Amino acid sequence: MTLTTRRRFLHLAGAVLAASVLPGLASAQTWPSRVIRAIVPFPAGSAIDIVARVVLDPLSAQLGQQIVIDNRGGAGGTIGANLAAQAEPDGYTLLIHSSAHSLTPAVYPKAPYDAARDFAAVTSFGSIPNVTVISPAKGIKTLQELVAFAKKGSATFATAGVGSASHWGVERLRLSAGFNAVHVPYKGGPDAIREVVAGRVDFMSFGLASVLPFIREGRLLALAVSTPNRSSALPEVPTTLEAGYPDSGYLFWNGMLVPAKTPRPIIERLYRELQKTLALPGVKEKLAPLGSEPMPLSPSEFDALIRKEIISNHAVVKAANLKFD
Questions:
Q1: What is the number of structural domains in the chain?
Q2: For FRET with 276, which of 70, 173, 184, 285 sits at 20 to 30 Å CA-CA?
Q3: What is the mean pLDDT of the chain?
Q4: What is the CATH number of the domain that holds 141?
Q5: Closest CA to 174 of 199, 134, 147, 144
Q6: Which residues of 232-248 are buried (b: 16+ CB within 10 A; e: fewer)?
């Protein structure tokens, strides 16, 4: 290949590359120009759904386009997440998920998507403690009493589905405290809460946003929170660590992801707008009673957290000898 021919080849290759990139850049510059769909892979009324609505309403106003929430619950969040993974990576489909997302590879090894590779993280909205709750009618008043009861071999616990954050919160506690319990999964949080309130299932470990109203009404008793420190929303409730169970904590984050090939300028725009949204006094006031704590992460930091959790979750499955279909 002569020098002249080589230069022509490089010029042509550069032109082809630019042609493939320019449509994406042009699309990013005009985004958003129509309605945006935000998939929440859990039912309305779940913790992540509540937080999503608090955050997305003002974000919609800032972007100048309506954001429509599409609740697609079931299978520990994998049904909705798969819809998002298959969507066009054009910024018009968002996934509002929780730490259940990083559980998928361990709990659903045959899931039709890759939790790390098929998504790009935008940012976290914050973290909300899981809180272990029980019906007051059970007569159990502390986490230690619950563990003692469970060790007798007759305890049941409700979750929002296999592999959900509510499932993992109990598994980490169970592994640390050394007890067995029968798992009773439901399609979503509201059904599980109803059964625990009624006393038909013994206990659960749910996001504070979902169960706080029931705690306030006295229909559920809070035994412990899963965070390293006590929740400002329930300062009188000890942590699972304070109760004497090491490595029992569970970080229940919630945040936004998009299909992996979404143009980077759109991801960066979403990140900047979300930082503004989360700093709004009105948003802070609504998130605070839910027990939400700030968790500021850049897109790259959020991606790194998810990958780290995927590894640690595999380790928990192995240590607890958990079996999933």
A1: 2
A2: 70
A3: 90
A4: 3.40.190.10
A5: 147
A6: ebbeebbbbbebebeeb
